[in-house]
Structure prediction request, 536 residues.
Amino acid sequence: MLYRSRILAPLVGAVVVLVLVLAGFSRGIAVEPALRETNPKNSSRTSTNPPNIVWIIIEDMSAHFSCFGETTIQTPNIDGLSASGVRFTKAFVTAPICSISRSALITGRYQTSLGVQNHRSSVPGHSIQLPSDVPLVTELFHEHGYHVNNLTWEAFLKNDEQLAKNDRVEIAKTDYNFEWSPEKSYDQPHWARRDRGKPFFVQIQLHGGKFRGQAPKSDWPNRVLKELGSITEVSSVKLPPYLPEDPIIREDWAQYLDCVRYTDHQVGKILQRLKDTGDFANTIFFVMTDHGISHVRNKQFLYDGGIHVPLIVAGPSIPMGQTRGDLVEHIDLSATSLALAGIPVPSSMNSRDFFSPNYKPRDAVFAARDRADETVDWIRSVRTEKYKYIRNGFPSRPYLQPNLYKDSKAIVQAMRRLYADGKLDPHQSLIMAESRPVEELYALGADPDEFHNLAIDPAYGEVLSELRSKLIHWCQQMGDRDGPESEQVYELEAAAEHLEGGKGNRNPQYQKNLELMRRWRLEKPFVPLSFGAESP
Prediction:
């Protein structure tokens, strides 16, 4: 049956862990140094007992954990994992939208290489089948003797009493943009009921930033207060410079930070559950998010706010207390996880094992944004250590094209209102523009918020040309077709119902947006990338 979409040196690290253990983590877990390899040169990639692998995947959240520099709140459980493992400060997704990011992650491939770059693709009349040499990571773990689950937090935490009544678990969020088989990917019994001695690979899907909903309401703060004992005070929030002072935006950011705190709470429960079953010592944890915070200039866009994500890896054989600043992509989790489990990595993967002795660091990371629900777009980017180059395929369209999902957010409505009232400063107004430059270039060291477009500055002509060529080469390598979906495919995809939800395509406004996209196909057309090495 086919199933449709549903990151210091070791010594310094050891000192950090010891301090945290002695402190007791006011509400975290005690890290066990004996479980961690303190000399990575002596660590073994294979073992007579294959490690368990756990992916903790958090929705709609940026790197706002205290171990990544957030000061308004504290995240002791995630900080503990970071201190006992490796924290990656420059990890990026290849797409800032959930289904596209997840489709790339589970295949270890750039989404553009598989034609799955449009949000919630593969519908009746346009079924997307993966090539025969592109297995899912879950299938590979399954084939090599691992027990494989994909679970909600609640399902992962089920205790023996609950499992004695029913040990079957449902498959949590997948959101893959292609056809796939659940039987080849996931086991029905809960990981705690697997066969004795069998290792497990488990994905745990956390709700993350989605807890706060589409508008600041009392439900979420009340739950946080009840379960965590306090809420983040609105007055303590420090907004990023691309956001204006506004009660709705400030309250939303406070509620978002409580999403981060609650996520940390959930991670603590996950770790404790594995301690209770005796599996903690042999489990390698990967903690990441599927893309950046869902906000006006972040999710759905290729600025760092949309594609930069937190990444932490901790467990047996993983170096302890390290911080890595090399560029990695979220698809690298695929090859790295397989290698840690002693499973051969398919040559078809674009993923790289970033713990391999032969690992070649990336000199650039790439990302793509395409259709999101009813809204047609085509943006590509290449990011190096120093620069970001963005190519807009629809320069005559506004950044914030009509989109029912995003326009329903109170923060977007507030930004539109403030812009209309002339209350946004020049930097905050950038995302509200009615058109875009074909090319954007940012010097990230001096301009981390990507405000100052250097693409028209002759002093940066050589950098512009180099990154443009690099992006074109990547697109060619990946078979990235130069343009959006055809009109016929768009009509099928954008109008279809999807099991994972998020469409709302029977909403009158959604239908109006569909009609607008049809008109804009001619009125505000796509501008191809294939202009060679010359400026467009």
Q: What stands out?
A: The first helix runs from residue 10 to 23. The CA atoms of residues 407 and 413 lie 7 Å apart. Residues 10-27+50-211+265-362 form a domain with the Alkaline Phosphatase, subunit A fold (CATH 3.40.720.10). The first strand starts at residue 52 and ends at 58.
